[in-house]
Amino acid sequence: MLDVKHAAFQINNKHILKDVSFNLPTGQILGVLGANGAGKTTLLKMIAGQRASKDMIYWHGRPIESLSHNEKAKQIAVVNQFNHNVFSLDLEQIISMGLLPHQRLFSRVSAQQKHTIADALAKVGLLAQRKQAFHTLSGGEQQRGLLARALVQRAHLIVLDEPINHLDVFYQHQILHLLKQLATARGLCVVMSLHDVNLAANYCDTLCLLNEGQMLAQGAPQDVLTETLLQSAFKTPCKVFPASQQHALRVEFLPHSAPHIDAQFGQDNLI
Ligand SMILES: Nc1ncnc2c1ncn2[C@@H]1O[C@H](COP(=O)(O)OP(=O)(O)OP(=O)(O)O)[C@@H](O)[C@H]1O
């Protein structure tokens, strides 16, 4: 169980995150939504133990900062948004890094572990690319590769920052479906930020909607994805179509003109 209690973060006296609280039972996926700069990445980094979070984030009752490096590596897998990789390693080598928390120093990869790596590669559709240098993979392939590394890590908490950013529509569904299956079958907690509210409605059990660092709403998709809340968070008109037996709830954002942008273009004579 993940517990976030009054999470707050400041940089240079600027409140990036203010009093954000929620909990997530095992086996569930939480989607973190919000406009650019709302604080999603900051919150995810705190949950992943990559930002200071004294007594604000608890994993199975323990403050996240009290976990040792090794415990963290075994318990938490992180798939970050930007991967400034300096690796000249191939994909298989990158994925095998997920085994490190479970291995003794300098031990060889066992046959069982090789099978686990091949299985993870197959699950993200990258078996054929396994010997390709990681930095030569496309953005979407790199993202799927990092997810495969998280699978191999067998962590119980997976934190993903915009995991489907670079993915085509087939892999968007494939990866989110896989995360949902894993969350249920292995009893994982999955926390991810997303920009696509319709995918969030389809795959997340629960959502939190951030606005300027504060929790605007949290709960089941139908309670969070309302026209009023979405318009307030994204400053864009929208229409919400309720869920039916066949389909999850669907949001359609409507074209609009943003007065501040119009004013700027007007001033600069760009149009
Ligand atoms: N090191 C920093 N110094 C100053 N401001 C920062 C710093 N890191 C983050 N911020 C600010 O904190 C706010 C929240 O950033 P964050 O990356 O958490 O937003 P986000 O919701 O993930 O945005 P996006 O959707 O664009 O990825 C932003 O306004 C950002 O400019």
UniProtKB/TrEMBL annotation:
Molecular function terms from GO: ATP binding
Alphabetical UniProt keywords: ATP-binding, Nucleotide-binding
Protein name per the record: ABC transporter ATP-binding protein
CDD domains, A to Z: ABC_Iron-Siderophores_B12_Hemin (cd03214)
Domain ABC transporter: residue ranges: 2-237
Species assigned in the record: Aliiglaciecola litoralis
Organism domain of life: Bacteria
Xref: Pfam families: ABC_tran
Lineage of the organism: Bacteria, Pseudomonadati, Pseudomonadota, Gammaproteobacteria, Alteromonadales
InterPro entries noted in UniProt: AAA+_ATPase, ABC_transporter-like_ATP-bd, P-loop_NTPase
S-adenosyl-L-methionine as UniProt keyword: no
